[in-house]
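Structure ticket #2291
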Amino acid sequence: MAGWSEGTVVAAAGRHVLAIQDTSEINFKTREGRDRGLGAIGKGVGRGILLHPMIAVDAESKECLGLVGGHLWTRTAKPTGPKKNNARIPLSEKESRHWIETAQSAKETLREAARITMIADREADIYQLWASVPAPNVDVLGRLFRVRQLVGGGTTHTIAQTWPLCDTRKIIVREREDRDEREAILELRFGEITLLRPTTTSEPGLPEQITLTLIELSEVGVPAGAEPIIWRLLTSHRPETAASAWQIVDWYRGRWTIEQFFRILKKQGLQIEDSQIETADRLLKLVAIATQAAVLTLQLVQARDGQSSVPAALLFNKAELETLDGLGRTKYAPRTALQKNPHPNMSLAWAAWLIARLGGWDGYPSSRPPGPVTFKTGIDQLKAFATGWALRDVCMP
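Resolution: structure written out below.
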């Protein structure tokens, strides 16, 4: 895990970086008498590993720049005896500490970035995070989960409706299992609020109040039977116009990138949960390796259209680059104009084109673009070829 961010540090320099974090459960198959040393996940019926990564995304292009850091753990057995009041447990003893620890570590990892916006979903709605993470050139942006009391009265869930309407926008709500696709009209309101410190927050040194910006998006004209859309975003950014508030909303929408990463890791690409490795310590190492591989796969998928600004040298070593170069001049040398690698030599898009060919893609622009499975297969092939290439000068007596 210590090497996760090596290339990211360079790629993030001078950019506005969205530092996006989330937690996901890696569910490994177990049965009674064979728990593989894994702790409970979900509602306690499964066994697995908790993965809490942070990825860096360019705020303007939404290009994934790589991993920033994170944590991996498997739970131990729950203590017996009377159940503790969770609100009174110190943050240092809660899993929610990972949201704050990861963000604080990212400040050093991304120190060369021009600006950092830390982004997380509702699980990171923690007073300690809002109070301790913001710094010069470091902002936080997240979705509210708790109803919070405000200085002067009111709550985070009621105050916005007393503000004037700033703007409206139409969006397409995508279809999913519990809803049909539809067009929705969203109303935008935003303003400055001051949170009161919760009475249950026991950490010393935290301020009694914090001033932040609340952005509320609420759907109007909701169809019968549909659940209305309402987003309440809290941020240390200070928008002054409707356009700048919509920009912050767009940055938050960049959080979808980490969901794509989890999909590659677990479902479409690496299928990490199918591993037959027997022990928790080895599964932890496997997940750490697979996390880096899944981010690499995501970066290749994004680079396939030629829009990537990251050089291939940040993601691949010398032997791998030499192997790709050799393959491009021999096995995948263009037989027709349509099968020519169209991207600049040694760019990530150039590498993505060659790795897709290794994964079985035919190289024709009219063909379906290569996806995560194709790139994963291509990476496996590249690793094997590069190992052989690196051994070319080894003397075997």
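Closing remark: The two ends are 37 Å apart (CA to CA).
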